[in-house]
Write a structure and sequence with these properties.
- By secondary structure, the chain is mainly alpha-helical.
- Helix content is 51%, strand content 7%.
- The protein contains 18 helices and 6 strands.
- The strands form 2 sheets. It has a 3-stranded antiparallel sheet. A 3-stranded antiparallel sheet has the order 4-5-6.
- Bound molecules: s-citryldethia Coenzyme A.
- S-citryldethia Coenzyme A (SDX) binds at residues 228, 231, 262-264, 266, 291, 299-307, 355, 357, 360-362.
């Protein structure tokens, strides 16, 4: 017997079905609400609203649980690799050895960019923010691959899109980095593996050799960023993709949404915050007080989360990886000490404890990127590379949903009531 939710409105009782997910989460299905009652719901920030049903990622914010297709993030971070996780997110199951080899080969077909795209990158101002460059150049790929404009894409084209974007966004990012340091670009060598290939494209020189442990640490970081259910940028991807916009425009929209400092842009802001504290010679306690002061615009970047009201399981893993990789590279970064002091001070402060504010995925990740030699303004590009398989998987799931409708929320109008136009200015 289907559970129902009863709603009393204007003296009438309405019933709406309750749906339950595979992990016992429940929702009131209000798809017929306006048609039967004339009412809509209002939920700023969609804090209580589910936008879809998805089989990709499960989060439990109260218990700090994160699973990709049922596999706990801790196990994937320890035992899997980024391309295997990319396959899992996009095709639903872990690949066999042959399937993974075939997938890597298909991604490897796109080891370069069209000449026109290389031209665009070589004419971008070196001082441009990499997120704006990666977004605009990714969107421009549609000019060179018009076959993707014929929407809706057939299944084989959806798989091609996954393979092509996994390869080309990485190359766009690395090639623009080389532009910023005025170095010649270095060709992708997919046989190195995703993370090692990226590091090689970024830092290739006579003396540079990719350290396998460094590449493995980056691979783990990418796994930890790969998907996170209906976060802001993934919701942007779903919304844009629902209009049958091409995949390049859709992913570019995800990149732009991620750029915001309240979202993926926070990893850059965390580093800048730690440097601000270091330069001010301030103590963690002083800056914790600033973060609590409503009249002070200072926020503890890298802290807090809409869903996690417990430890962000990714932050726990990243914090350990940060320690390991800095030791391995023999890097002693005073900013790590400041970060640890901030975390300790915040976790013993009632303001943060009462609001369940814990370090999130962005709090320690930047310290690893910095140790790898990645410039601060490229940190959110690293988040793009990690989140790309999640965006693609969620886009693919949405496109394969035969109940899909274009996303078009309603609103409650609060402007002027009807009034007649009286000409004030000459026409
Ligand atoms: C990501 O959604 C995802 O899954 C995102 C992500 C992913 O993988 O896709 O996990 C990636 O975006 C992580 C979040 C990165 N952003 C930051 O680190 C920026 C700093 N954090 C905050 O701006 C904030 O915590 C958010 C944006 C992350 C969450 O904001 P919410 O859920 O809207 O919470 P809120 O702003 O309403 O805060 C609730 C209370 C408020 O105080 P009161 O009004 O109750 O007195 O907590 C306070 C806030 O002022 N608060 C903070 C704080 N975060 C929340 N106070 C100081 N410092 C902070 N960082």
């Amino acid at each position: 017997m289907t559970e129902v939710a009863k709603l009393e409105l204007d003296g009438k009782t309405y019933e709406f079905p309750v749906i339950e997910g595979s992990e016992g989460e429940k929702a009131i299905d209000i798809r017929k609400l306006r048609g039967t009652t004339g009412y809509i719901t209002l939920d700023n920030g969609y804090m209580n609203t589910g936008s879809c049903q998805s089989g990709i990622t499960f989060l439990n914010g109260e218990e700090g649980i994160l699973r990709y297709r049922g596999y706990p993030i801790e196990q994937l971070a320890e035992k899997s690799n980024f391309m295997e996780v990319t396959y899992l997110l996009n095709f639903g199951e872990l690949p066999t050895a042959q399937q993974l080899s075939d997938f890597n080969e298909e991604v490897g077909h796109y080891a370069s960019l069209p000449g026109g795209i290389c031209n665009m990158l070589s004419h971008m101002p070196p001082a441009a923010h990499p997120m704006g460059v990666v977004s605009s150049v990714t969107s421009s790929l549609c000019a060179f691959y018009p076959e993707y404009l014929k929407m809706p894409l057939p299944p084989e084209m959806r798989r091609k899109a996954v393979c092509q974007l996994m390869a080309q966004v990485k190359i766009i990012a690395a090639n623009f980095y080389r532009r910023t340091v005025e170095e010649k670009t270095h060709r992708s060598n997919p046989k190195l593996g995703f993370a090692a290939d990226f590091l090689n494209m970024m830092f290739a020189s006579e003396s540079y050799k990719v350290d396998p442990e460094v590449a493995s640490a980056l691979d783990t970081l990418l796994i930890l960023h790969a998907d996170h259910e209906q976060n802001c940028s993934t919701s942007a991807v779903r919304l844009i993709g629902s209009s049958e916009a091409n995949i390049f425009a859709t992913v570019a929209g995800g990149i732009d949404a991620l750029w915001g400092q309240l979202h993926g842009g926070a990893n850059q802001k965390v580093l800048e915050m730690l440097e601000q504290i270091q330069n001010a010679g301030g103590t963690a306690k002083q800056f914790i007080e600033k973060a609590k002061d409503k009249n002070d615009s200072f926020r503890l970047m890298g802290f807090g989360h809409r869903v996690y009201k417990n430890f962000d399981p990714r932050a726990t893993i990243i914090k350990k990886a940060c320690d390991t990789i800095l030791k391995k590279l023999d890097v002693h970064d005073p900013l790590l000490d400041i970060a640890l002091e901030l975390e300790e001070a915040a976790r013993s402060d009632s303001y943060f404890v009462e609001r369940n504010l814990y370090p999130n995925v962005d709090f320690y990740s930047g310290l690893i990127y910095k140790a790898l030699g990645i410039p601060t303004n490229f940190f959110t590009v690293m988040f793009v590379l990690g989140r790309l398989p999640g965006w693609l998987g969620q886009w693919k799931e949405m496109r394969e949903d035969d109940t899909l409708k274009i996303s078009r929320p309603r609103q409650i109008y609060t402007g002027p009531n009807t009034r007649d136009y009286v000409a004030v200015n000459k026409r």
